[in-house]
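quick q for whoever's on today - can somebody do inverse folding on this one?? i tried earlier but teh output was garbage lol. tokens:
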């Protein structure tokens, strides 16, 4: 009798695990589709690439970075081969936050 309950418990645990994996997969697909639709990635250049290539950084892991091009082809590249560029909005935001006012002299 104990073996039967243990078997049922394992079966229920397996089903719950599969449902959680399916839920996680659906959420990841939704987040990925939203990211691709908004296409708000940082522009980059490859050290061995051409200047005419438009490449964008998706995410970097511990060893490789995921890069996407304008045709939505994904490339894995070593981070040492990437030249990171700065967005114009980030420069403008940094300039406004780093400016300090000079004290007035009376």
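ok took a stab at it. sequence:
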């Amino acid at each position: 009798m104990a073996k039967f309950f243990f078997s049922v418990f394992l079966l229920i645990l397996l089903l719950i695990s599969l449902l959680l994996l399916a839920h996680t997969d659906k959420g990841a697909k939704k987040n990925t589709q939203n990211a691709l639709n908004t296409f708000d990635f940082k522009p980059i250049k490859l050290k061995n690439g051409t200047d005419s290539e438009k490449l964008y950084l998706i995410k970097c892991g511990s060893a490789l970075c995921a890069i996407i091009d304008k045709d939505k082809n994904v490339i894995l590249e070593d981070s040492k081969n990437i030249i990171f560029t700065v967005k114009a909005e980030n420069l403008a935001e940094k300039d406004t936050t780093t400016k300090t006012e000079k004290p007035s002299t009376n």
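fwiw The mean pLDDT is 81. also The CA atoms of residues 54 and 70 lie 6 Å apart. so keep that in mind when u check it
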